[in-house]
Amino acid sequence: MYEAAHDPMIAALAKTLSARIDTLTTGMADRITTEIEFYRNVGVKPADLQASLRHNTACVLTYLDGSAAEPDLSGALRTGRIRARQGVPLPEVLRSYRLSFTFFWEQLLAEAIRFGPEAQTALLHGATRIWEISEGQATAATAAYRDALAERLVETDRRRSALVATLVEGPPPGSDTTWEIARMLGFPYQGNFLLVAAEAVAGGDPPLPGLDVKCQAIDAGTAWRAQPGHELGVISCSRRQDVERVLDAVRAVATGRVGVSPVYDRLAQTTRALRYARVALESLPSDTPGVRQLDDTPLTELVMNNLETTQRAVHRILGGVLSLPEEDRTTLLATARAWLAAHGSAAEAGRTLYCHQNTVRYRMHRLEEFLRGPLDDPKIVAELSMALDAVGTFPTLLDGRTAPHES
To answer: What per-residue confidence (pLDDT) applies to 404?
Structure first.
C-alpha cells in the first residue's frame, strides 16, 4: 500500500510541521468541534480529542520524515476502540478523520508553497501516498471500533440476560433490586409489560427472528434470557394500546410454540407472569408453531394452581361427553358455549352457530344426558360453564394427556 522510499523534500515539510505539532492539532480540534456537534456538545472531552489527534498526527509525520518504514496505526486503533466505548457514532468518527486530515493537508500544502516550486512538485507526486495514509488510519479505526462495539454488545447482552434472570427468579423480598433493574434495562418500573416464553427450534435458529427490530419500530423495549429449550423475553410497551401490535409482531415471526403472559403493570410481577407464559406455551399442540396468551382471570389462576384437580373436575362434570367421537364431542361443546353465551336462548345460539334453534335444543338435550343433572338446575349450569371455561383455556384438560404444569 505504501511506498518504502521517502522523498527528501516531503521529509523536510514533515519536520517543519513536527516543530509546531501542538498548534497543528489544536487547529484540527477546532475544526472538528466546529463541524461536528457530537464532539462539541456530547461525547468527547477536548483533552481526549487533542491527545488522540496529536498521537495520530505524530505517527503520520514520523512516517513522512523517513523515521518509520511504515505508518504507525496504533493511534488509530486506540482511537477507534475509545470512541466505540464513548458511544460516538462511527460516521462521526470517520468524519473527524476526514476533517483532521484535510486540515493536515492544507497545512502541508501551505508549507510546500512557502518552500517553493520543488516542494510543491514533490507534494503533488506524493499526494496519493499521503492520502493513502489517511485511508489506512480510517480503516484501522473502523476495524477497532467494530471490534470494540461487538465486545460491548456481548457484554450488554450478558448483563441484560442476568437482569432478566433476576426478574424471573424473583429479587430478594423487601429489596429495591427491581427498581435498579428497571433503570439498567431502560424500562419503567410501572408500565405495560409482557413476558414471552418462546420454544427453541431445531438447528439453533432464534425462535423469534427479527422481533427486536419490530418492537423498536413501535417503541417497545426488549430484554432476553436464553434457557435450555426456550428463550424468555420481557417486553415493555410504551402505551397499553401498543400491546396488540407487539402480539401481532410476535405472531408474525414465531417459528415454534410461544406462550405470552397477560399484561402486567409492575416489573416486580415478572415471576408470576412467567408462570402464565410457560403454561400458555405448554398448552399449545406439540411441534406446531403458534402463539397463545392467557387471560388474567380468577379461573385461570385457580386452574393453574390446581391443574390435576381441575382435570378431574372437568371429567366429572362433562362425563361421557369426553368419550364421544371427536366430531360429536366438538359439536356438543361448541353448542354449549354458544347457548351459555346467549344466556340460554336457543334462537340466539342458533344464529351464532348458523343452525336452526331446534337443532340447538336437540343438541343441548343430548348434552344434558351426559351431565350430572338437568340444565334447569343453576348448579349444573354453573358447573358446565366452569368446565367449558377451563378447557377453553387449557384444551389438554379434555383428554388424558398430562396437563401443563408450572415449572
So the answer is: 45
- Tell me which long-range contacts 282-287 makes (C-beta under 8 A, separation of at least 24): 282/404, 282/405, 283/259, 283/393, 283/394, 283/395, 283/396, 283/404, 284/257, 284/259, 286/257
- Please report whether residue 157 resides in a domain: no
Structural domain range at position 248 = 177-296
Grid cell of 92 as nine digits: 462521526
Q: What is the pLDDT of residues 20-43, one digit of tens each?
A: 999 999 999 999 999 988 887 766
Residue 192 and residue 256 in one domain: yes
DSSP-assigned letter for residue 114: H
Ranges under pLDDT 50 in the chain: 1-5, 401-407
Asked whether residue 84 falls in the same domain as residue 204, the answer is no
Q: Is 390 exposed, middle or buried (0-12, 13-18, 19+ CB in 10 A)?
A: buried
CB-count burial class (<10 Å; 0-12, 13-18, 19+) for 188: middle
Cell numbers for 407: 415449572
* Alpha-carbon span 32 to 257, nearest angstrom: 52
Closest-CA residue to 100 (of 26, 47, 167, 157) = 26
